[in-house]
Amino acid sequence: MERAYRIAILGATGVVGTEILQILEERKFPVDSLVLLASARSAGKQLPYRGTFLPVQSLSEKSFEGIDLVFASAGGSISKQWAPQIVQARATLIDNSSAFRMTEGVPLVVPEVNPEDLRAHQGIIANPNCSTILMTLALWPLHQVRPIKRVICSTYQAASGAGAAAMAELQDQTRDVLAGRDPNPQAFPHPIAFNLFPHNSPMTENRYCEEELKMIYETQKIFHDPYLRVSATCVRVPVLRAHAESINIEFHEPFPIEEATNLLKQAPGVMFTENWQSNTFAMPLDASGQDPVLVGRVRQDLSCPEALELWLCGDQIRKGAALNAVQIGEWLVQNDLVSHKSDLVSRV
User: Fold this and answer.
1) What is the mean pLDDT of the chain?
2) Domain check: are 65 and 145 in the same one?
3) In this structure, what CATH number is given to the domain that contains residue 66?
4) Phi, psi (deg, nearest 5) at residue 307
5) Residue 300 near residue 291 (C-beta atoms within 8 A)
6) Would residue 146 count as lying in a domain?
7) What is the pLDDT of residues 133-170, one digit of tens each?
8) 13 with 80, same domain?
9) How far apart are CA 246 and CA 105, in angstroms?
10) Which of 80, 89, 102, 334 could form a disulfide with 64, with the two C-beta atoms 3.0–4.6 Å apart?
């Protein structure tokens, strides 16, 4: 008989938290009991699950007693605050924030790429940045055949990446502009309706924003290649849900388009989609609500014989966040690796 697990979702009322809840039900995750956790202001809310409604509880010192697995999507500061208690309670934390992604000893995992890293987990597992997840799904099958020398990525990131308030702001501003009213930015620093701007994460001394650096360093960690050359330009666009990316990939030798295309068509987590005759390729509307990352428009870079160009779209909330976390949980369950013996408690 399959073992069932005691699950907690930390940040259950947020965009990613509610998606995790839905995906656990859709994929029939082996749940024995399910605890929904959020801030005190959300306590008492009811969320649907398997034909019933579960109450949202306020975080407390006893929240993780008897829990096997915690899916966290409440932000980095909350994860850092509660991670020691989660690990000490012998629960395993799958964290969707950036809090532990680059921490030594914490696996940073895309299950279609580096699931074996999970075998070394000590109670904390990091879910990568959404744009990194989408990009690595397209890069990995190619990198396995012809190692990648350099990647240049430009992202077109939907409002969903900044949460429910940002999605509502895009809708509200669109209505305001169409009605002749001035937009009133709150979740974003600039108007998002009928506009775009470089990603609003903090700028660093090297003039890259933090979102761009995440794509660089996280890809290197996931690929176990600190010398992989990656550069990114991340942009917020007036799209409600699902990110898009334009990627230039330079190899050490030419990569025939047909071979690359065939590899992508077989790649797990990827749906190859393109129609050159009608000039139709993946769009955020196509990717929204979908599990796979839509990849296509593979073409030769005319400026470099060793480089290919491709285009992708992926649902930031699903594969870029919630689905990836649940897939990590599934891999742990399938390999009997949910429990752990950790020495991370003193280091987180």
Assistant:
1) 95
2) no
3) 3.40.50.720
4) -120, 145
5) no
6) yes
7) 999 999 999 999 999 999 999 999 999 999 999 999 99
8) yes
9) 32
10) 89
> Is residue 202 located within the same domain as residue 286?
yes
pLDDT the model gives residue 40: 85
Query: Residue 69 in contact with residue 338, Cβ under 8 Å?
Result: yes
| 161 and 260 within one domain | yes
> 305 and 327 share a domain?
no
Q: Name the active-site residue from 121, 130, 234, 313.
A: 130
Q: Distance between CA 318 and CA 332 in Å, rounded?
A: 19
Q: How far apart are CA 67 and CA 10, in angstroms?
A: 12
The pLDDT score that the predictor gives to residue 340 is: 74
- Looking at the predicted structure, is the pLDDT value of residue 292 above 70? yes
CATH number for the domain that contains residue 185: 3.30.360.10
Confidence of residue 215 (pLDDT cuts 50, 70, 90): very high
Centre a 10 Å sphere on the Cβ of residue 175 and count the other Cβ atoms it contains.
Answer: 12
Domains identified in the chain, total number: 2
Query: 225: burial class by Cβ within 10 Å (0-12, 13-18, 19+)?
Result: middle
Cβ-based neighbours of 241, under 8 Å, separated by 6 or more: 158, 159, 160, 167, 284, 288, 289, 315, 316, 317
Domain housing 234? 131-316
**Which residue shows structure tokens 């775009």?**
196
Q: Are 118 and 328 in contact (CB under 8 A)?
A: yes
Catalytic residue among 121, 143, 199, 243: 243
Consecutive H or E run containing 299: strand 293-300
Residue pointed to by tokens 């940045």:
129
Q: How do strand 46-49 and strand 5-10 relate by DSSP bridges?
A: unpaired
Q: Residue 237 and residue 133: Cα distance in Å, rounded?
A: 19
- The Cα–Cα gap between 247 and 148 comes to 12
- Can 130 be counted among the known catalytic residues? yes
